[in-house]
Write a structure and sequence with these properties.
About 65% of the residues lie in helices and about 10% in strands. The longest helix has about 40 residues. It is mainly alpha-helical. The chain starts with 10 loop residues before the first strand and ends with a helix. The chain is globular. Among the domains are: about 70 residues; about 190 residues, no CATH class. The protein has a three-stranded antiparallel sheet.
């Protein structure tokens, strides 16, 4: 039988969608039978015969379940286990204590009546902003900005993104799940801000979706104020130009955050709502597994998988094919004019080069993950045959 003293250190959580084990800030999703056996063992109320009779399983199935639970429990509490993170070189910007203090004030925006009123307004303002920019400021391009404009946009975006992360933390705090720190780190090679709200696993799916929407919600509220200033200020002066830069950048980040095929807010919204753990990993191989008859037909996973490959194909056709041309322009300009002139006089080309670098790296990472998953699948098949 299971013999592990650390069974009393784990915390068992469940909601309407899932059964979870919490150990030192690591969450593990398990089956109902797995959860109920651990619950009885943890409460010292387990009786083998009664459990077999209540769950209507055979003695052989019970012994197999016990072995699985014992092995998984040893893995969960193992000192060698390390929490997997997609953020590297992370540093704290706001401590857990400070985040909770700020979130206590901002949680007001997630009261049911307030959220139902302001969230549609924020979304409508975002759509209205895009229409106004398309109709009245069609010739204004982010690539036409000077280097100082880029610096201004970057630091303004940092402030906006800090509020974005506070949106997640405040939503989590509203649902009585204390958020952790807000920090800065690197996703692959790209600098990002993040909010640690991993504890929301204990919430139901609708609450988790609201937490995931919290960042875009706060960005939308900021956009309402920016749109107001743009409409009130009718003169095309430097103030209008700065507002256009900020609004366009904010809208771009909001739209980017909602893309479900990138590990961002949109991805977690979809993953949490449909309660699919490792959605990205499963979607890459789902079509191949379905064709081989290894998995059952699930319409959402099939649609998501097709969407995933369509998104990658679009990026390849629309962006990857332009990377050689962008690189040649970049190299030619630097060789003839120097890097300092590029930075001061042609920031648009530098921006295009950085964006091309981003797309190229993302494509390589996606290809590597796909090959790795296929290799793991093949390896699992060989081990099963043996």
């Amino acid at each position: 039988m299971i013999d592990n003293d650390k069974i009393y250190e784990i915390e068992l959580l469940k909601n309407r969608e899932s059964y979870l084990i919490l150990f030192k800030e690591n969450y593990f999703s398990v089956s109902q039978l797995f959860y109920e056996l651990l619950e009885e063992l943890k409460n010292n109320s387990h009786q083998k015969e009664k459990f077999i009779a209540a769950k209507k399983i055979s003695c052989e199935n019970y012994e197999e379940l016990s072995r699985i639970v014992s092995g998984k429990l040893d893995y969960i509490v193992s000192e060698k286990k390390r929490k997997k993170s997609y953020i590297n070189l992370a540093i704290n910007i706001l401590s857990e204590k400070r985040v909770i203090q700020i979130s206590n004030y901002l949680s007001f925006f997630f009261k049911k009546a307030i959220f139902r009123l302001l969230f549609p307004i924020a979304i409508f303002a975002g759509i209205a902003s895009q229409l106004i920019l398309s109709l009245n400021y069609r010739n204004h391009s982010l690539l036409d900005m000077s280097w100082l404009d880029y610096v201004f946009v970057y630091f303004t975006l940092l402030v906006i993104m800090l509020f974005h992360e506070l949106g997640h933390s405040s939503a989590s705090n509203y649902f009585k799940v204390e958020p952790k720190e807000i920090g800065f780190g690197f996703y692959i090679i790209f600098p990002v801000l993040y909010s640690n709200v991993t504890r929301i696993w204990k919430l139901n799916k609708n609450e988790k979706v609201i937490v995931n929407l919290g960042g875009i919600y706060f960005q939308g509220l900021i956009n309402c104020f920016l749109l107001f200033f743009l409409v009130v200020n009718e003169n095309n002066n430097s103030f209008t130009y700065l507002m256009l830069i900020i609004i366009k950048t904010n809208l771009f980040v909001m739209a980017y955050s909602l893309i479900p095929f990138i590990r961002n807010d949109g991805y977690w919204i979809v993953s949490d709502y449909f309660n699919i753990i490792d959605l990205n990993k499963k979607s890459y191989t789902y079509i191949f597994d379905l064709i081989r008859g290894k998995v059952k037909l699930k319409y959402f996973l099939l649609i998501f998988s097709i969407g995933q490959y369509s998104f990658v194909f679009y990026l390849c056709c629309h962006f990857l094919l332009t990377i050689p041309l962008t690189m040649s322009k970049f190299i030619f300009y630097v060789l003839n004019n120097g890097f300092l002139k590029l930075v001061s006089l042609n920031a648009g080309l530098l921006f295009q080069m950085l964006f091309s670098l981003f797309i190229g790296i993302m494509a390589l990472v996606a290809f590597y993950k796909f090959i790795k998953l296929l290799f793991e699948k093949k390896k699992d098949q060989i081990s099963l045959k043996l």
